[in-house]
Amino acid sequence: MQKFKFKDLLPAFILALICGICVFLLAGTYSITKTKIDEQEEAAAQERKLTIFPDADSFEALEYSDEIKNELTEKNILPDEVFTAKAKDGSVLGYIFVTSGFGYAGTIETTTGIDTDGRIVMVIATAASDTPKLGKEVEGRPFLDGFTGLSTDKEIVLNQDVAAVSGATISSRAATGCINRALEAYTLFKERGLIG
């Protein structure tokens, strides 16, 4: 029987030490950059809202009860965020619904602006992790401008109301689904008297 020697474990200890140092450095880098990344994401979100409602002075998060949240969840239309766009005089310009879904190869997030008459003002989509030249094409204005002016009264049907991006049908369907969830949530909020 071979006798156990400490030097046989030395490579494993060195490897464990190197891994520990790497984890520590990665954690440190993450904590340093996380705040900056969060600030950049918040600034980009604010820019999207102002692009949709350039005359808005403020965007107030819409508050709603757990009961409404549960109803939205049951219907699978719970938005990620909802904001009321207000002018300087306090009048409501419209509403912003942020919704997300999975496209061809990554998450697609849509920011949908709806005016007080229940019409889509503009949609902005981000598909940062989707396939370049395919799924990311849903970020383009040719596709998104097709939603402008459509009503919240009915579900938007891809290739009937809006043309899908050629070669990116899955991502087009995902983006349209996100927008339809925003429209359904808008309708529910209106029925419950949470928005005018």
Characterise the protein shown here:
With 196 residues, the chain is of the alpha+beta class. It has helices spanning 10-52, 66-74, 141-144, 169-191; strands at 58-61, 81-86, 92-102, 107-115, 120-126. It folds into two domains: 9-50; 55-191. Helices cover 40% and strands 19% of the residues. The model has no long low-confidence stretch (mean pLDDT 87).
Short overview:
The chain has about 200 residues and is an alpha+beta fold.
Q: Considering DSSP H and I runs of 4 or more, what fraction of the residues is helical? A: 40-55%
The pLDDT mean sits at: 87
Low-confidence blocks of residues:
none
Q: In total, how many beta strands?
A: 5
Instruction: Tell me what portion of residues adopts beta-strand conformation.
Output: 15-25%
**Structurally, how many domains make up the residues?**
2
Overview features:
196 residues; alpha+beta; 2 domains; five-stranded antiparallel beta sheet; 4 helices; 40% helix; elongated
